[in-house]
Amino acid sequence: MGRKETVFKYFNEQKEYTKDRVALGIEKNRKGFAELSIKDQKGNPIENVHVSAVLEKHEFKHGANLFMLDELETKEKNDIYKKRFKEAFNLATLPFYWKDLEPEQGKPRFEKDSPRIYRRPTPDLCLEYCEENGITPKAHCLNYMPWSPDWVPDDIDETKRLLDKRFHELADRYGSRIHGWEVINETMEIKLDEDRKFFKEPDVVEWSFDRAKRYFKNNELIINEASSSAWEQFKYNRSAYYLQIERALLNHTPIDTVGMQYHMFYPREKEEVCIEQMGNPKKLFAVLDQYAKLNRPIQITEITIPAYSRGEEDEEIQAELIKQLYSIWFSHEAVDAIIYWNLVDGYAAFAPQGDMTSGENYYHGGLLRFDMSEKPAYQVIKELFQKEWHTETDCVTDKSGKAQFKGFYGQYRLTFNMNGKTVEKKINFSKNASNRFEIVL
């Protein structure tokens, strides 16, 4: 059996089921009708106005981490990175790893001119880029114990005190500019002999969210977990991650959103095992259906789909698998964000730049090659959100000045033509709104 047959075994076997469920889910969950009422300055309806509607920005969030912003070795590469990122995404995950944000106690690296740390651009730099380009920022992560600074003592009370200070400072400085915050990460990956005492406390999740809510009063608070617990060890409502969240919610813990990583971190020789665990459409839908019962939106927070090499077939398989997975996630009612992890090959975690044999570089899981050329995977994501899942349509008002169109939810540019006159307006067409728009021309 060739690699393509191995990777797409279950997608091929379940082709009709997957195709139907994806198509129905997208129509039901990602599209709706916008109702327009066009009037003149006196409030009278205007008949026969020709309306052109063009989707400019999806409401559905899709992005990647921004860890290599101005971190590449040449200006040319950095410029391409910034260009390719904004061309493909409307969301960016920003690094708030405590160890790297505050390597020296009391001297956080907030400002643009702070000392540089690889793969850790400063929050001010990242926010400047996001705000200039209409990209929604998201913070990763408030309490990620393995990334605690060395100067934090392994003492429960002192850890809580220092975390409280960190939460307070970040909320004061960035709470109004960053809506979504991952509060705690990978609690199911605990190492009994290595992790800090506070990470082993029975209420570490509850305490972290309760304390975050104290300072981030109007923000989205997200729990995040590794792929193994989220997908591979799935046991319906007996899944450990599901039970952890369910218990926390029963304790009135303010978890707003459920995050689930999706890193296919299996070596090539074990890809068949990976597909058994993570490449079955019916299982993927079952996981999403189960976690949707928590009545919280789901984010696919960190995605790595391996190509393993620069070979043409390997890159084509990566692209096709991304297309299949994104289609499932995009179609599901509970999912509200899909976030790829590394944009560029050769700059992943736990490896020197450009060394494609070590760390996470081994997987060739980026969307651009090390030389910044586009892989088929990058082109697939752009085509999905900008062509296949895109709306450009026309309608005409009736005698009562009303018209409607069906499209994907998001920000639209409307162009009105009447009697040789052209007017443009912007509307936000949302899944969670009435979507009745009265427009005066």
Could you explain the architecture of this structure?
- The protein is 35% helix and 23% strand.
- It is α/β, with parallel strands linked by helices.
- It has two domains: 3-55 and 391-440, Carboxypeptidase-like, regulatory domain (Immunoglobulin-like); 61-376, TIM Barrel, CATH 3.20.20.
- An eight-stranded parallel β-barrel has the order 3-4-5-6-7-8-9-10, surrounded by five helices. The chain has a four-stranded antiparallel beta sheet with strand order 11-2-13-14, with no helix packed on it. A three-stranded mixed beta sheet has the order 12-1-15.
- The model has no long low-confidence stretch (mean pLDDT 97).
Which secondary structure elements does this structure contain, and how are they paired or packed?
Layout: H1 3-7, H2 9-13, H3 15-29, E1 31-39, E2 50-58, E3 61-65, H4 75-88, E4 91-95, H5 98-101, H6 123-132, E5 136-143, H7 156-174, E6 180-185, H8 204-215, E7 220-225, H9 227-232, H10 240-250, E8 257-263, H11 271-278, H12 281-292, E9 298-304, H13 312-331, E10 335-340, H14 376-388, E11 392-396, E12 402-408, E13 410-418, E14 421-429, E15 436-440
Parallel strand pairs: 1-15, 3-4, 3-10, 4-5, 5-6, 6-7, 7-8, 8-9, 9-10
Antiparallel strand pairs: 1-12, 2-11, 2-13, 13-14
Helix pairs in contact: 3-13, 13-14
